[in-house]
Design goal:
The complex is a heterodimer. By secondary structure, chain A is mainly alpha-helical. Helices cover 80% and strands 0% of the residues of chain A. Chain A is globular. The two termini of chain A are 17 Å apart. Chain B contains nine helices and ten strands. Chain B has helices spanning 48-56, 95-107, 113-126, 142-155, 172-189, 200-206, 235-238, 242-258, 276-284, and strands at 6-17, 20-32, 37-41, 63-68, 71-72, 80-83, 160-164, 192-197, 209-213, 221-226. In chain B, the strands form two sheets. Chain B has a six-stranded mixed sheet, with helices on both faces. In chain B, strand 1 (6-17) and strand 2 form a beta hairpin. The chains are: A mainly alpha, B alpha/beta. Chain A binds chain B through residues 181, 183-184, 186-187, 189-193, 197, 201-202, 205-206, 208, 280-281, 283-286, and chain B through 56-58, 75-78, 80-82, 84, 86, 88, 90, 92-94, 97, 101-102, 105-106, 134, 136, 156.
Chain lengths: 286, 285
C-alpha cells in the first residue's frame, strides 16, 4: 500500500533521468518485502516435507514424487476424455460455476433480508432468532434435505452453497443498516429523499463496509462448502475429483487438488475484497 | 405579531420512556421576523436542540406548533435547512457531491443540469471551498467540513436556516474566522437564521436577538435580548464598545445568576466580569 502511494507521489516530482531507476528500485523493494518472505518459508516447508516423506515407509509421497505423478495433470489442465475424466481446470470451473450460482443467489437474498432486518424492528424480532439458530447448522447437514427436495444433485449443491453463504451476509448487512448514523438519516429527511433514493444514495453506501465484510466471509464459506458437498454428490467438480482420487489411491492427485483449492479460495477472497475497496470509495471519481 | 415569518407557539415537549414522562419544554413562544438572526442560548440540557429539531420537523411537539411563512411544520424539508454540529457530510461523497445530492433532489425538474452545477459551485464559492471540490470529507479539516455543511444548507434556498451549534466543534481561531464568514454571507443574503449556541460572545456578535432559555425540566424562554449594534460588526472594534459589553453582561448574568446551573459550575457566581471570558471558553468545552 504505502509503496504504491510513494511511487505515485515520487514519479512526477523526480521527473527526468532517474525515474526508471526509482521505479526498478521500488519494484525490487516490493518484491523483497512481500514476495520473498513467503517464498523462502515455502521452500523451507517443502524441503522438510521432502526429507520426511522420502524416508522408507512414509505414508505420503514427497513433493518430488507428487510433481512427477501429476505432471500430466499440471501441463494439460484442459483435456476432456468424457465423463468425469476431464482436466483440473474443468473440474475447478465446474465447482466455481456452482459457487457462482449459489453465492449470487445468497448475495441477492442476503442483502435484501439484511436490509429488511436492519430497517424494521419487527422483522428483527421475528427473524433474527430464527437466523441465529439456522446459521449454526453445518453446510453438509443441509445436503440430504435438499437432495430430497430437489431430487437432483446439481441444484442441491447450489442450495448448500446458498444456505452456507447467506447468514453472514444477512447478519452483516443488518448490522450495517442499523449502524447508519442518525445524522445521515436526518440529512435524507431534510432533503426529502424518497425510499428508493434513500436506499441507493444513503443506505447502501453507508452500510457497504459491513455488507462487504459479510460478502467476504460468505465467499470463503461457499468455497469451503462446495468441496465437501461435491464429495457427496459426485460428477465433475474439484470436490469429487479429490474423493475419486482417494478411492483409487492417487494421493499425489489429492495433494495437487488441495493446492488448487487453496489458491482458488485465496483468489476468491481477494476478488471480493478488491471489489469492496472499489465500491466503498467507488462513488467518488478519482 | 401574527405577521411573523417563523412563529413558534405554545410548544410543549415531553419524552416518555418506560412509563415515565419527562417534560423538556413548556410553553415555548417565539416570533421571528424575516431576515432576522436569532440565537438560542442556555445551559446544556435545557432543550435548545429540542426547539431547533421541532422547527426542523425532525421532532414533533407534544402540543403547540410551528408556522413558517404561513405554513405549519409537520415534517422535515429543505425550506428549513439544517447545519449540524458535527457537519454530517456523507463521507463517501466529495465536497461537490455533498452539495449536489441536495441540489439535485430539490431542484430536479426546476433547473437544468448546467444551472444546478453553477448553483452548487456558487454556494461552495461563497464559503470559500472552490479549491477542494473533489476532496472527500476525510481529507479536509473540521472547519472546511463545516463550511461545506453551510454551503449545502444555503444551496437549498431555505426560508429558515437552522444552525445547531455550528461552530461548537471548532478551535477558537477557526471558529472566529467562520463566524466572520457567516456574518458576511448573512449581510449578502439576509436569511432568517436560528442558531443554537453556548457561546456568549458568538451570540452577541452574530445575533439581532438573543433568546435565553431557562433550565429544564420544563424549560422555556426566560428572556429575550435585542442586540442593537450596527452592522457590519467587527469583533475587534466591538471588544471596547460599551453596548457590546453591556449585552455580554446581560447574557452572562442571565446564565450565571438567574439560571445558574447548580452542579457543574459551583463558584461561577463569585467570579468577576474580568474572568468572564475564560468562563465562556470553559463552557464551550
Amino acid at each position: 500500500m504505502s509503496d504504491t502511494t510513494s511511487i505515485a507521489g515520487l514519479a512526477p516530482a523526480s521527473a527526468a533521468p532517474p525515474a526508471w531507476r526509482m521505479h526498478a528500485l521500488t519494484l525490487y523493494r516490493r518484491f523483497a518485502q512481500h514476495v520473498l518472505p513467503p517464498l523462502v518459508v515455502l521452500m523451507l516447508l517443502v524441503t522438510i516435507w521432502e526429507l520426511l516423506c522420502t524416508r522408507p515407509g512414509a505414508a505420503l509421497p514427497p513433493p518430488s514424487q507428487v510433481l512427477s505423478d501429476t505432471w500430466e495433470l499440471i501441463i494439460d489442465p484442459f483435456f476432456d476424455n468424457g465423463g468425469n475424466d476431464v482436466g483440473l481446470a474443468w473440474q475447478i470451473l465446474a465447482s466455481l460455476e456452482r459457487v457462482a450460482y449459489g453465492y449470487l443467489l445468497a448475495v441477492i437474498a442476503g442483502v435484501s433480508l439484511g436490509v429488511l432486518v436492519g430497517q424494521s424492528t419487527w422483522a428483527l424480532r421475528g427473524l433474527d432468532p430464527i437466523f441465529q439458530v439456522l446459521r449454526t447448522v453445518p453446510p453438509l447437514a443441509w445436503l440430504p434435505i435438499s437432495l430430497a427436495g430437489f431430487q437432483d444433485s446439481n441444484p442441491s449443491a447450489i442450495f448448500v452453497i446458498f444456505i452456507t453463504a447467506i447468514w453472514p451476509i444477512i447478519i452483516n448487512t443488518s448490522v450495517g443498516i442499523r449502524n447508519i448514523p442518525e445524522d445521515y438519516r436526518n440529512v435524507a429527511r431534510v432533503i426529502r429523499l424518497n425510499g428508493i433514493e434513500y436506499f441507493w444514495k444513503i443506505m447502501l453506501p453507508a452500510a457497504s463496509p459491513y455488507i462487504f465484510s459479510g460478502l467476504r466471509i460468505g465467499v470463503g464459506l461457499s468455497w469451503l462448502a462446495i468441496v465437501a458437498a461435491e464429495m457427496l454428490i459426485g460428477g465433475v467438480g474439484i470436490g469429487f475429483f479429490i474423493w475419486d482420487a482417494w478411492n483409487s489411491s492417487r494421493i499425489s492427485d489429492i495433494i495437487l487438488a488441495l493446492v488448487y483449492v487453496g489458491v482458488v479460495g485465496f483468489l476468491l477472497d481477494r476478488i471480493v475484497a478488491w471489489a469492496g475497496r472499489r465500491v466503498t470509495r467507488g462513488t467518488t471519481p478519482a | 405579531m401574527s405577521q411573523a415569518y417563523l412563529s413558534i407557539s405554545r410548544v410543549d415537549m415531553a419524552f416518555s420512556r418506560g412509563g415515565v414522562t419527562n417534560p423538556v419544554l413548556a410553553d415555548v413562544n417565539l416570533d421571528i421576523q424575516r431576515g432576522e438572526y436569532i440565537s438560542l442560548i442556555g445551559h446544556s440540557g435545557c432543550g435548545k436542540s429540542t426547539v431547533l429539531n421541532i422547527v426542523a420537523g425532525l421532532l414533533r411537539a407534544t402540543s403547540g406548533g410551528v408556522i413558517v411563512d404561513g405554513r405549519e411544520v409537520n415534517a422535515p424539508g429543505p425550506d428549513r435547512a439544517l447545519v449540524f454540529q458535527n457537519h454530517s457530510l456523507l463521507p463517501w461523497l466529495t465536497v461537490y457531491q455533498n452539495v449536489e445530492i441536495a441540489v439535485q433532489k430539490i431542484f430536479q425538474g426546476k433547473r437544468s443540469a448546467a444551472e444546478q452545477r453553477d448553483w452548487i459551485l456558487h454556494n461552495l464559492e461563497m464559503v470559500s471551498m472552490s479549491h477542494a471540490l473533489d476532496r472527500l470529507p476525510a481529507e479536509i479539516s473540521g472547519g472546511m467540513k463545516q463550511r461545506v455543511g453551510i454551503a449545502r444548507a444555503l444551496a437549498m434556498e431555505p426560508k429558515v436556516l437552522l444552525l445547531d451549534e455550528p461552530f461548537g466543534a471548532l478551535d477558537a481561531l477557526t471558529r472566529a474566522h467562520l463566524q466572520d464568514e457567516v456574518m458576511r454571507i448573512q449581510s449578502e443574503l439576509h436569511n432568517t437564521v436560528m442558531m443554537i449556541t453556548h457561546d456568549v460572545d458568538e451570540a452577541v456578535l452574530l445575533s439581532d436577538r438573543i433568546v435565553m432559555m431557562t433550565n429544564g425540566p420544563s424549560a422555556t424562554i426566560g428572556q429575550v435580548l435585542d442586540i442593537d449594534l450596527p452592522r457590519p460588526r467587527d469583533r475587534l472594534e466591538l471588544a471596547d464598545d460599551a453596548r457590546y459589553t453591556h449585552y455580554r453582561h446581560e447574557v452572562l448574568s442571565f446564565l450565571y445568576e438567574k439560571q445558574r446551573k447548580v452542579e457543574p459550575i459551583g463558584s461561577a457566581r463569585a467570579r468577576s466580569a474580568a474572568t468572564a471570558k475564560r468562563e465562556s471558553a470553559a463552557m464551550r468545552a
